[in-house]
Amino acid sequence: MSALVLSESLGTTVRQPLMRATGVSKSYGDTIGCLDVSFTLHPGEVIGVVGESGSGKSTLLNVLSAQLPPDAGTVEYDLRHRGMSDIFRLSEPDRRRLMRTDWGIVHQNPRDGLRMDVSAGGNVGERLMAIGARHYGEIRAEGLDWLAKVELDASRVDDKPKTFSGGMQQRLQIARNLVTRPRLIFMDEPTGGLDVSVQARLLDLLRGLVRELGIAAIVVTHDLAVVRLLADRLMVMRHGRVVEEGLTDQVLDDPHHPYTQLLVSSVLQV
Amino acid sequence: MNAVAKKASWDEAYNFAYLDEQTKRMIRRALLKAVAIPGYQVPFGGREMPLAYGWGTGGMQVTASVIGPSDTLKVIDQGADDTTNAVSIRRFFKRVAGVATTEATEEASVIQTRHRIPEKPLKEGQVLVYQVPQPEPLRKLEPRETETRKMHGYAEYGLMHVRLYEDISRFGHIATTYSYPVMVNGRYVMSPSPIPKFDNPKMENNKAIQLFGAGREKRIYAIPPYTRVKSLDFDDHPFEVQRWPQACALCGARNSYLDEVVLDDKGGRMFVCSDTHFCADRQEKGHRGPMAADPAARAFARSSETSEQKEDDGR
Ligand SMILES: Nc1ncnc2c1ncn2[C@@H]1O[C@H](COP(=O)(O)OP(=O)(O)O)[C@@H](O)[C@H]1O
Ligand SMILES: [Mg+2]
Ligand SMILES: [Zn+2]
């Protein structure tokens, strides 16, 4: 037991990256989406991506999560059996399998991430069934378990998400993604469009789950309060480029780039 | 039909079997591909066929493409040979292809069907043509064609079980009773067309060729003879066919698919075989159900013509 713990902690100190982006660029015609972005993400680490609207955060996230091929640059991921691999060189079925097992994607708009005509339990169970679960009782039990983890009432398990509030839909999306125990989860403005009190509760929940499960995450937001609470490290984007990066507290408390200073001061005014 | 000339036994105002040769060749190519890849939906360039609304043209086009002058055609609609649609389709092919027609399953070389598989086991050499309104079993949950195509391509079928999961969570059991999805040859999930799930087990290892035509969606698919066909289910909710506590009121069959028939406005009803030929055949062989002698029941029997014959023959 202690030997295992030791070797595991040794493994962590080696710091094998989970994902590595190198020179990632994506334009839409003449419009720059993101430009020459490079970074390394380690297992269990949470990176926040901040910047004003239009700074390229969603574009970057969509490329990293294999939803949008880049014009230039590579995105490598530590596949369970193959090690670091360029995700855009995987075959499409392999990439799709990765996206629904080892990754999770929480969309800003729950409509993009949930099946609105399928019950909450069915939404959570879908990934399990996709990887071969064929025991109804077990799938349902797991669904109920995850509803509890995201603080949704078990009595809602057979209700459709279209009857849920925005905050509940977002929590259901999280449960639906985490059920296969992914190692990496992508989130685009996870608290966007929610009331402030609902936002705070969702953030608490997310922080708890990410810490408890040791999941790595890339969280895109224009809201510095979100990354303050969730992110270990921060990347600040402007006009598609990363202008500053570092540990969250350092960047927020002692911003070096003038643009970051502006961002931080404007949030202080809010 | 009376005006048929000697050299051709069909109405020569039409090309044989109505469709032009090029169209039939195109459909046959699609059929060959479909047979080679069991359960895979092959797109084809569909044509219009003259028929009553509600029948769709997919099955008709397939039948027109496989039928030859020496074939014998049977047409069933919900198990019955004598509905308006079954009669008019039979008459149509008699006219445009000059083929013999029959109600007897064992005599037919081509059987066109909507909603049932005959009770009598099919033989090698027979062709069963299904009329299909919606070929895509995933469509209800995934409206995007690009996505369902990928799901089939990569055998990503989790969604199919989501559909069954939803059934159980709502009704306590898999409530889907027709169009019940099957896995063909361990590879493609397929809609069996709106047959009752009672008929699903008949598709497996069937000796006949099973061809499916969807006219509106322009898709053809097939199950070659002796192919594995498994109905999807859960370990703790295994697939089951419908069962009835009673036997057929007319022929006493206990292993056939029964339709409920209302006899009067006082709650009188009976359950009879949906396969009218199967039922009549059994009665002809002397099998009797509990209401076989009841005149009201006889009057309501679907295939009254055949039943009357039986009365004469049987006694
Ligand atoms: N699909 C698209 N087509 C054209 N331009 C786009 C598209 N998506 C984003 N853009 C543009 O790319 C830039 C970055 O957008 P985006 O990545 O959405 O930024 P953010 O998420 O930070 O608001 C913006 O100028 C935006 O207008
Ligand atoms: Mg965005
Ligand atoms: Zn009967």
- CATH 2nd-level architecture of the largest domain in chain B: 3-Layer(aba) Sandwich
Question: Gap between N and C termini of chain B, in Å?
Answer: 36 Å
Name the helix and strand elements of chain A from N-terminus to C-terminus, one letter apiece: HEEEHEEHEHHHHEHEHEEHH
Total helical segments of chain B: 9
* First-to-last CA distance of chain A: 50 Å
Strand order of the largest sheet of chain B: 1-9-8-5-4-2-3
Number of strands of chain B: 12
Number of domains of chain B: 2
Question: Which quaternary structure do these chains form?
Answer: heterodimer
State which percent range the strand residues of chain B make up. 15-25%
Q: Residue share in helices of chain A?
A: 40-55%
Widest β-sheet, arrangement of strands of chain A: 6-7-8-3-9-10
The percent of residues in helical segments of chain B reads 25-40%
Number of strands of chain A: 10
InterPro entries (chain B): PhnJ
Biased composition (Low complexity) (chain B): 292-301
Family (chain B): Belongs to the PhnJ family.
Function (chain B): Catalyzes the breakage of the C-P bond in alpha-D-ribose 1-methylphosphonate 5-phosphate (PRPn) forming alpha-D-ribose.
Provide an overview of this structure:
Chain A is built from eleven helices and ten strands. By secondary structure, chain A is an alpha/beta fold. Chain A has a domain at 114-181. In chain A, the strands form two sheets. Chain A has a six-stranded mixed β-sheet with strand order 6-7-8-3-9-10, with helices on both faces. Chain A has a four-stranded antiparallel β-sheet with strand order 2-1-4-5, with helices on one face. In chain A, strand 1 and strand 2 form a beta hairpin. In chain A, helix 6 crosses helix 7 (166-178) and helix 7 packs parallel to helix 8 (196-213). Chain A is globular and about 55 Å long. By secondary structure, chain B is an alpha/beta fold. Chain B has two domains: 21-138 and 179-231, Rossmann fold (3-Layer(aba) Sandwich); 258-314, no CATH class. Helices cover 29% and strands 16% of the residues of chain B. Chain B has nine helices and twelve strands. Chain B has helices at residues 21-36, 58-66, 84-97, 145-153, 158-171, 200-203, 276-284, 295-300, 304-314, and strands spanning 42-43, 72-77, 100-101, 110-114, 127-131, 182-184, 188-190, 209-214, 219-223, 229-231, 258-262, 269-273. In chain B, helix 7 runs parallel beside helix 9 (304-314). The relative contact order of chain B is 0.14. The model of chain B is unreliable at 1-6 and 303-315 (pLDDT under 50). The interface between A and B is medium-sized, with 24 and 18 residues. The complex binds adenosine-5'-diphosphate (ADP), magnesium ion and zinc ion.
